[in-house]
Amino acid sequence: RGSIVFWNTGAQNLFGYAKEEVLGKQSSMLLPERYKFLEQKGLQTLQQKDLSEFKGRLRQGTCKRKDGTEFANEISTGPWPTRQGLYYVAIIHDITERLKAEQALRDSEQRFKELADALPQTVFELDLDGIITFVNRTALDTFGHTQADIDKGMHALHMIVPEQRMTVRENIEK
Question: What's the whole-model pTM score?
Answer without folding.
Answer: 0.69
